Automatic annotation (TrEMBL):
<feature type="transmembrane region" description="Helical">
    <location>
        <begin position="61"/>
        <end position="83"/>
    </location>
</feature>
<dbReference type="Pfam" id="PF00528">
    <property type="entry name" value="BPD_transp_1"/>
</dbReference>
<feature type="transmembrane region" description="Helical">
    <location>
        <begin position="104"/>
        <end position="124"/>
    </location>
</feature>
<dbReference type="InterPro" id="IPR000515">
    <property type="entry name" value="MetI-like"/>
</dbReference>
<dbReference type="GO" id="GO:0005886">
    <property type="term" value="C:plasma membrane"/>
</dbReference>
<feature type="transmembrane region" description="Helical">
    <location>
        <begin position="186"/>
        <end position="207"/>
    </location>
</feature>
<feature type="transmembrane region" description="Helical">
    <location>
        <begin position="144"/>
        <end position="165"/>
    </location>
</feature>
<feature type="domain" description="ABC transmembrane type-1">
    <location>
        <begin position="53"/>
        <end position="265"/>
    </location>
</feature>
<keyword id="KW-1133">Transmembrane helix</keyword>
<dbReference type="InterPro" id="IPR035906">
    <property type="entry name" value="MetI-like_sf"/>
</dbReference>
<dbReference type="GO" id="GO:0055085">
    <property type="term" value="P:transmembrane transport"/>
</dbReference>
<feature type="transmembrane region" description="Helical">
    <location>
        <begin position="213"/>
        <end position="234"/>
    </location>
</feature>
<protein>
    <submittedName>
        <fullName>ABC transporter permease subunit</fullName>
    </submittedName>
</protein>
<keyword id="KW-0812">Transmembrane</keyword>
<keyword id="KW-0813">Transport</keyword>
<keyword id="KW-0472">Membrane</keyword>
<comment type="similarity">
    <text>Belongs to the binding-protein-dependent transport system permease family. CysTW subfamily.</text>
</comment>
Length: 277
């Protein structure tokens, strides 16, 4: 009876996570006729595929780094900055919504705002003579994709790191002050070393979050960027040039990378929680 309450969750995980993952893993080692093969995995050693993975890794890393830095600053302002509850509560609520806002709606919102004829783009050009396109900014590029990803990376960072900041004991800061440490020394020698596992683990989680963001990348850039998710979509959508076996192998590579990043997050998160208890 104790397991009855979690049975729907276990069923959901099995049907929509474990079974599709196993289907991808098995499909990566099968031919169109169902025979076992390593050709799909070996086919990943192509220049276009390696470049796609490398570009995806760069976009994911930089969006995770910026998301961590900006989100940490905002979370610190929430916890230690003395923000009134009238600002703090809506900000945390918005972070919970924005961290799950992705895909076609997010891509459309940024195209309508920062696209070639977006609201802010046209306003800057007509009112101030600032031509973002002439300055080299292009939303439909890796740079634009990083900026778009920040919309859900920063809120996710705020949601994850805020409990860790709230877990910092006041006695630690008081002890550092009694010993003559300045605020900067406290952060450099006490707070940041304690928070480092949480920060590094959250960075890994944000990296995995960006690396697996398929719908946003496709909706925003189409086929103009050689990203791993876009290349995967091209292989499995069923056109003449599609190769489902190679698509499964591409998906397997993405599963391995995101799985490794999530494993790092779980391990480091567990270590940080020992300090904060």
């Amino acid at each position: 009876m104790r397991w009855l309450g979690v049975l729907p969750f276990l069923l959901f995980v099995g049907l929509f996570l474990l079974l599709p993952t196993m289907h991808v893993v098995v499909g990566a080692f099968r031919t169109a006729d169902g025979a076992f093969t390593f050709d799909n995995v070996l086919a990943l050693n192509q220049a276009s595929i390696i470049n796609a993975y490398w570009l995806s890794l760069r976009v994911s890393f930089f969006s995770a780094m910026l998301g961590c830095a900006i989100g940490f600053a905002m979370a610190a302002a929430i916890v230690f900055g003395g923000l009134p509850r009238a600002i703090r509560s809506p900000l945390l609520t918005f972070s919970g919504v924005a961290s799950n806002f992705a895909g076609v709606p997010l891509a459309f919102a940024f195209i309508a705002t920062l696209g070639p004829v977006g609201l802010i783009t046209v306003w800057l050009r007509t009112e101030f003579g600032i031509n973002l396109r002439a300055m080299g900014f292009n939303l439909l590029s890796a740079q634009g994709l990083i900026i778009t990803y920040l919309f859900f990376q920063i809120p996710l960072m705020i949601l994850i790191i805020t409990p860790a900041l709230e877990g910092m004991k006041r006695e630690w800061r008081e002890a550092a002050s009694v010993l003559g440490a300045s605020g900067l020394q406290y952060w450099r020698m006490v707070a940041l070393p304690i928070l480092f596992p949480s920060l590094l683990g959250t960075l890994a989680l944000l990296f995995a979050n960006a690396f697996g963001a398929v719908a946003t990348a496709i909706a925003l850039t189409g086929s103009s960027l050689n990203l791993a998710p876009i290349l995967l979509f091209a292989q499995i959508r069923g056109d003449v040039l599609g190769n489902p076996g190679l698509g499964y192998a591409l998906a397997l590579g993405m599963i391995v990378i995101t799985g490794a990043a999530n494993t790092v997050y779980i391990v480091l998160r567990t270590r940080s929680e020992r300090w904060l208890k």
